[in-house]
Amino acid sequence: MTKIAFVGFGGVGQALAEILLERKVHLESSYGLEAEVVAVSDMMKGAVYQPDGLDIEQLLEAVRETGNVENYPDGPGVTKGLDSMATIQQSNADMIVEVTFTDVETGQPAIDHCRAAFEKGKSVVTTNKGPVALAYEELSKLAEKNGAYWGFEGTVMSGTPALRMPVATLAGNEIKEIKGILNGTTNYILTEMEKGNSYETALQKAKELGYAEADPTNDVEGYDARYKAAILSGYLMGTPISSKDIPCKGISDMTLEMVNDALEQNKKWRLLAQVKKENGTVTASVEPQLLDTDDPLAGVTGATNAILYECDLAGPIMLTGAGAGLKETGFSLLIDLIDYQRQKTMEKI
Ligand SMILES: NC(=O)C1=CN([C@@H]2O[C@H](COP(=O)(O)OP(=O)(O)OC[C@H]3O[C@@H](n4cnc5c(N)ncnc54)[C@H](OP(=O)(O)O)[C@@H]3O)[C@@H](O)[C@H]2O)C=CC1
Ligand SMILES: N[C@@H](CC=O)C(=O)O
């Protein structure tokens, strides 16, 4: 049995809870993943803990109908109001789902949440980019030392396996360059502008669809893509780069006129992140680039993302799929949970 505590319970957390509810039987019978949600702790939506397991349907009903999980029915063993640290340290959860806001300056409080979990020997799955972009080396060593699992597939390209796919299936190659559209919100805005819609309307729609960060400045100024470039550099290229050292320009000054001028020249603007290895040195950048309309990356539209790995043996390999979205990102946590279960079964953790 895997006892789960959610730290943060916004769109992505609720999406995973719904998947666990809907696929319960399949997850148990096909993957041996018996997941029980024992706790939720969210900044404004309250906290509830029941060591023997919460009823997910009633939990989702409470948060969706009243905005607060503390309206979950009282009963024997039900405790309310524990903060996120108390939930991590004092609950009987052995798996922490860390889905609080990504903070692009400090990575907090998510870094402290991961540290506290690993120090207690508890595992973490997260879609929060802060801990991976800013503290990958420290946290991965701490997790290993304490026999804990750390999954973060959804930090780059949501449920599209941009991290696990190259590690598992491109091993043996040297990856010389990684280039891609790594932010769903900005790609959605650019393609809406290509249809004649305004920047402001498109951004508003991206917020409503759950693509944008809590503070969408992080999307439109390129900071979110910069974090993802830092993750790719540290995790896939083996060279940590501080995200502050990655030159970054976003799309906030993009006008309809610029988008239309590009279309008239058979070109399209795309916000590209690039990580390159040259003579053993890894560099990264994020900026809008003008691409010919027949460039495969120009054909990527909406919140879809794409990533191109330049491999020395296998050649260029491109992966495309959702870069944002609640169900898709909920799925990225599920695949980490399934991986955790597989490793547990093989007694690796
Ligand atoms: N949405 C997407 O498509 C994707 C999101 N991500 C990442 O996944 C994470 C979750 O995203 P999403 O669910 O969309 O974001 P939301 O803004 O919907 O949810 C985040 C939740 O975390 C809560 N929270 C913030 N700080 C704390 C804290 N210190 N303790 C407890 N709870 C806290 C917020 O509380 P409240 O609002 O109640 O104040 C909110 O409910 C983010 O880090 C995001 O960058 C990654 C890939 C794709
Ligand atoms: N806000 C991000 C969500 C996923 O990381 C995006 O738009 O890509």
TrEMBL record:
Glutamate/phenylalanine/leucine/valine/L-tryptophan dehydrogenase C-terminal domain span: 4-95
Keyword vocabulary terms for this entry: Amino-acid biosynthesis, Methionine biosynthesis, NADP, Oxidoreductase, Sodium, Threonine biosynthesis
Amino-acid positions noted as binding L-homoserine in the UniProt annotation, renumbered to this chain: 213
Binding site for NADP(+): 8-13
Gene Ontology MF terms: homoserine dehydrogenase activity; NADP binding
Lineage: superkingdom: Bacteria
Catalytic activity: L-homoserine + NADP(+) = L-aspartate 4-semialdehyde + NADPH + H(+)
Domain (Homoserine dehydrogenase catalytic): residue spans on this chain: 163-338
One Pfam family recorded for the sequence: Homoserine_dh
UniProt-annotated catalytic positions: 228 (proton donor)
InterPro entries: Glu/Leu/Phe/Val/Trp_DH_C, HDH_cat, HDH_CS, HDH_short, NAD(P)-bd_dom_sf
Residue numbers binding NADPH: 129
GO biological process, one term: threonine biosynthetic process
Pathway: Amino-acid biosynthesis; L-methionine biosynthesis via de novo pathway; L-homoserine from L-aspartate: step 3/3; Amino-acid biosynthesis; L-threonine biosynthesis; L-threonine from L-aspartate: step 3/5
Its EC number(s): 1.1.1.3
Family designation: Belongs to the homoserine dehydrogenase family.
PANTHER family tied to this protein: HOMOSERINE DEHYDROGENASE
Protein name stated in the entry: Homoserine dehydrogenase
Organism: Thalassobacillus cyri
